[in-house]
Automatic annotation (TrEMBL):
Top-level taxon: Bacteria
Family annotation (SUPFAM superfamilies): Heme oxygenase-like
Protein name in UniProt: Uncharacterized protein
Gene3D superfamilies: Heme oxygenase-like
Length: 218
């Protein structure tokens, strides 16, 4: 039995996959070649991002008139609140952000685009864009946490933000697929637009990482 939502998501993830390795910061951290101050910058930028994403998920849930989309977005919002609390230990361990023009334009383009999607995107299409990029985000966070421990001496509390997003989220994929399938069944999901949203989502996230890579290459 075919699963149109699964097929669409798999196809879009396959289209995005060749660019997953365009992240220039993660290999630097994994090899211990990024300046330690990058973690202070990440913490400071993520403070802005997580607060914005929390509001964006709530807006998406409030706008969704389809129950499965509302469940998907509403379930993600509390995770942002938990993640925000985990940043405090990283801020304490890494110190103050040494940047001069803060926050950085290249780091904040991603949450600005997500906020635009929250206000303007069709729910199922936004669900595709978000979930299509989740796996890469989780891998990035896992690699960052491993590099922090191996090369920079950070403890578990300081790595907790990245550990949180690297961990599996049981049931999340099923919720995403249900929201996507509901959009397909209702004729409210345009595959071309979903692809565009997913591609831009990936591009803006890579901009976040690569902005920091340019600044903090050791």
């Amino acid at each position: 039995m075919t699963n149109p939502a699964r097929e669409l998501l798999d196809a879009i993830q396959a289209e995005l996959a060749p660019r997953d390795d365009d992240n220039r910061l993660v290999p630097l951290v994994a090899a211990g070649q990024a300046a330690r101050a990058v973690f202070a910058a990440i913490a400071a930028e993520e403070k802005w991002i997580v607060r914005s994403d929390w509001r964006s998920f709530h807006e998406l849930a409030a706008r969704a008139d389809e129950p499965r989309a509302r469940e998907f977005f509403g379930g993600l919002a509390p995770g942002e609140q938990l993640a925000l609390g985990k940043l405090d230990a990283l801020v304490s361990a890494a110190g103050a952000d040494p940047g001069t023009e803060l926050p950085r334009v290249g780091c904040q383009a991603y949450p600005a685009y997500f906020a635009w999607l929250a206000l303007n995107g069709e729910s199922a299409e936004v669900a595709v864009a978000i979930f299509a990029n989740f796996a890469a985000w989780g891998r990035y966070c896992g690699a960052i946490a491993a590099g922090m421990r191996e090369h920079y001496g950070f403890d578990d509390d300081a790595c907790a933000f990245f550990d949180f997003f690297a961990a599996d989220a049981p049931g999340l994929e099923d919720q995403a697929l249900a929201a996507i399938q509901a959009g397909l069944d209702a004729g409210r999901l345009d595959a071309g637009r979903a692809r565009t949203y997913a591609r831009l989502f990936q591009g803006y996230e890579l901009m976040f990482w690569n902005t920091l890579a340019e600044e903090f290459s050791a």
